[in-house]
Amino acid sequence: MKTLPFWAVVPAAGIGSRMRADRPKQYLQLAGRTILEHSLHCLLDHPGLQGLVVSLATDDPYWPDLACSKDSRIQRADGGRERADSVLNALLRLEALGAAAGDWVLVHDAARPNLARSDLDRLLDELADDPVGGLLAVPARDTLKRVGADGRVVETVDRSLIWQAYTPQMFRLGPLRAALAGALAAGATVTDEASAMEWAGQSPRLVEGRSDNLKVTRPEDLQWLAQRWHDQGRD
Ligand code: C5P
C-alpha cells in the first residue's frame, strides 16, 4: 500500500481546567512521558508525516524541557484564544514551511495520547480520495437525554444518529484554512475542524475509530489510561 503524505497540527495551548491539576493537562505524566509527547509520537512514528506544527501558549514554560522540542520535524506556532485560533495559526505556519493548499493536514488533540496506529492508517486510507475529508468518530453507546434548564429530561435522543467526534481530523490545507478563518470572522461556534468545514457547507465523512482514543479531560481518564498501559506492559 502506498504511503499517503500528510502534515500534522497539534493544538496544545489549552489549559484543561477540568483536570484540576497544577499545570495544563498535556504536561501531566503518563508512563514516564508527558501526555503531549505521547500524542505527538503517535504522528511522528508514521512514515507519511511531512512535518508537524504544535501550537503553544506564548508563555508556555514546559515545552522547552521536552526532548521533542529539539526534534527538527516539529515547528511551533502561537496558540490563540480558542482552539480554532490555535489551529489557524498552525496552518499559516505550515504554509510558510511549504505545504500546498491541496495537501492533507491531520489535526490531533494534544490530550489524546492513545491513538492506535491502526486507526491512523484507516483514516488515511479511507479518506485518501475523499473530496472533503473527515474524522475519526465513535458511535454513541449510552442512551442520550436532552435536558432542560431545570435539570430534568426533556426527551430521549435517537442514539443511532449520534457519534462522538474524535481526532485526528483530516482536511486539505486550503479549504480548512478558509473554513476556520471564515467561521472565526463570523463568530460561529467552532469546537473542532469538522464544525468549521460544516459551517463552510461541507459534509465531513466519519471514520469509525476505537473508543479508547479518549481525550484526557478528567482525573479519572488519566488514571484509567495509566492502569491500562500498565496492564499492557507499556510503562
Ligand atoms: O479543551 P479541549 O480539551 O477541548 O481542547 C482541545 C485541544 O485544543 C487541546 O489539545 C488544547 O490544548 C487545544 N487548545 C488550544 N488553544 C486553545 C484552546 C484549546 O490549542 N485556545
Automatic annotation (TrEMBL):
The record marks R18, K25 as: Transition state stabilizer. It comes from the Bacteria. GO terms for molecular function: 2-C-methyl-D-erythritol 4-phosphate cytidylyltransferase activity. Pathway: Isoprenoid biosynthesis; isopentenyl diphosphate biosynthesis via DXP pathway; isopentenyl diphosphate from 1-deoxy-D-xylulose 5-phosphate: step 2/6. PROSITE patterns: ISPD (PS01295). InterPro entries: IspD (IPR001228), IspD/TarI (IPR034683), IspD/TarI_cytidylyltransf_bact (IPR050088), ISPD_synthase_CS (IPR018294), Nucleotide-diphossugar_trans (IPR029044). It catalyses: 2-C-methyl-D-erythritol 4-phosphate + CTP + H(+) = 4-CDP-2-C-methyl-D-erythritol + diphosphate. GO terms for biological process: isopentenyl diphosphate biosynthetic process, methylerythritol 4-phosphate pathway. The record marks R159, K215 as: Positions MEP for the nucleophilic attack. Keywords: Isoprene biosynthesis, Nucleotidyltransferase, Transferase. Its EC number is 2.7.7.60. The keyword Ubl conjugation does not apply. PANTHER family: 2-C-METHYL-D-ERYTHRITOL 4-PHOSPHATE CYTIDYLYLTRANSFERASE, CHLOROPLASTIC. Belongs to the IspD/TarI cytidylyltransferase family. IspD subfamily. Catalyzes the formation of 4-diphosphocytidyl-2-C-methyl-D-erythritol from CTP and 2-C-methyl-D-erythritol 4-phosphate (MEP). This is 2-C-methyl-D-erythritol 4-phosphate cytidylyltransferase.
